[in-house]
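Run log // design_07
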């Protein structure tokens, strides 16, 4: 019964420690680490733990094979976890960077995204004249009525398969609404002609998008006149004149959205109130920052869940690897541990020594895994379906310091679980039995 209660208590300690480790912010964890170092320096038990740890660490080169199992296993967990989470961060940043607080998007009321929205011509004209919209030097509202459709193009990977790309018909103020969009090769399209410009992300993903080439969209040929870059999700699109796109896809004078540059971020509330108060309009109004952030939430969350599930599965394997390694290490050092106990070392310093040795290996594995993820995947180009559409969106994986810290926390958590049980066994090892068996 006593053994059972000890086991339950140990399990509760593990669960409580992991929950606290995951929930506490880094300043609190740093303060706890400082307190632990002070304990090791100022108390007899702490100094004994330090001495026992130095002895154990000094023997690591003699156990390089078994120790590398822990390091490599944990490095694999961290590398995979950080890489998957970097995908979600990159996707979210690509969409979030597409918006700002001083630009607005207007959709038909109840529309979840542009592809499900339809704005009639009269509504488009009324929106463009709403108060709060900035105007150019000629006094013209900086508003771009836009039409989004999906088109198919052959992929650049040579497989012969086709992928879906988003073709956006824009108004003549689209460049003023999005000043971050710059032509980096060729020229922009001419209004009224079946010409288009391609984002650099779309050019990287689809074949035939070099300036001067012709591509077939539907049953019609279009000329690619240039390549643009924006540093956000727009890089995955094709742009052309809205009237030409509407004619080619038989959309009449309707548009899917209106993008507008406001006089400032503080003008949004007035702009929204004016549109909501117009009886001719049934529209939803959001800042582009809010719109694109919401568009990324579901996909980013799904990627994060997948990453955590995969990480947990791999972490279980790494924990068992650490358990086997440390149990073997404790068994091989039974006489050494028994000698320490015989000369006055209590159970706590022995537990701490074994735990610190395991955590050191886990730390090495976490650093190695984070480094591998950063070298292999930071800036790596990927693509997936854009939120709310069937078109593919290109983005880059982003291994952030926050993700590296998350990976390191996972590594140390694995080391804690993998070292705790062998450490407790070492502390409970009867001195006479250990000396006799060794």
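design_07 sequence
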């Amino acid at each position: 019964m006593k053994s059972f209660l000890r086991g339950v208590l140990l399990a509760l300690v593990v669960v409580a420690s992991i929950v606290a480790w995951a929930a506490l912010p880094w300043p609190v964890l740093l303060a706890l680490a400082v307190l632990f170092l002070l304990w090791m320096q100022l108390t007899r038990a702490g100094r004994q733990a330090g001495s026992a740890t130095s002895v154990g660490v000094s023997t690591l080169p003699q156990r390089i094979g078994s120790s590398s199992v822990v390091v490599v296993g944990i490095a694999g967990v961290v590398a995979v976890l950080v890489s998957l989470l970097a995908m979600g961060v990159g996707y979210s940043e690509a969409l979030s960077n597409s918006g700002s607080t001083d630009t607005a998007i207007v959709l038909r009321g109840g529309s979840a995204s542009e592809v499900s929205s339809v704005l009639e011509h009269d509504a488009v004209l009324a929106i463009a004249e709403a108060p709060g919209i900035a105007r150019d030097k000629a006094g013209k509202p900086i508003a771009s009525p836009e039409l989004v459709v999906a088109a198919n193009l052959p992929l650049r990977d040579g497989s012969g398969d086709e992928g879906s790309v988003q073709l956006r018909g824009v108004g003549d103020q689209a460049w003023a609404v999005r000043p971050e969009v710059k032509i980096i090769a060729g020229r922009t399209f001419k209004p009224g002609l079946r010409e288009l410009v391609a984002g650099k992300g779309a050019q990287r993903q689809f074949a035939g998008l070099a300036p001067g080439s012709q591509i077939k969209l539907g049953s019609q040929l279009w000329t690619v006149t240039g390549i643009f870059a924006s540093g956000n999700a727009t890089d995955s699109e094709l742009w052309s004149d809205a009237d030409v796109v509407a004619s080619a896809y038989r959309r009449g004078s309707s548009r899917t959205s209106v993008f507008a540059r406001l006089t400032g971020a503080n003008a949004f509330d007035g702009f929204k109130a004016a549109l909501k108060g117009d009886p001719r309009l049934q529209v939803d109004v959001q800042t582009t920052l809010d719109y694109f952030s919401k568009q990324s939430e579901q996909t980013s969350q799904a990627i994060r869940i997948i990453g955590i599930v995969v990480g947990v599965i791999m972490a279980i394997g790494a924990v068992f690897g650490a358990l086997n390694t440390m149990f073997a290490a404790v068994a091989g050092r039974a006489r050494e541990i028994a000698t320490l106990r015989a000369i006055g070392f209590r159970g706590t310093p022995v537990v701490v020594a074994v735990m610190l040795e395991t955590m050191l290996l886990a730390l090495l594995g976490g650093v190695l895994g984070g480094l591998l993820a950063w070298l292999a995947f930071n800036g790596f180009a990927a693509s997936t379906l854009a939120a709310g559409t069937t078109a593919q969106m290109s983005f880059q994986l982003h291994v952030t310091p926050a993700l590296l810290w998350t990976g390191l926390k996972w590594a140390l958590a694995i080391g804690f679980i993998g070292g705790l049980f062998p450490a407790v066994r070492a502390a409970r090892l009867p001195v006479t039995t250990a000396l006799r068996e060794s």
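The chain has two domains: 12-96+296-437, 110-281.
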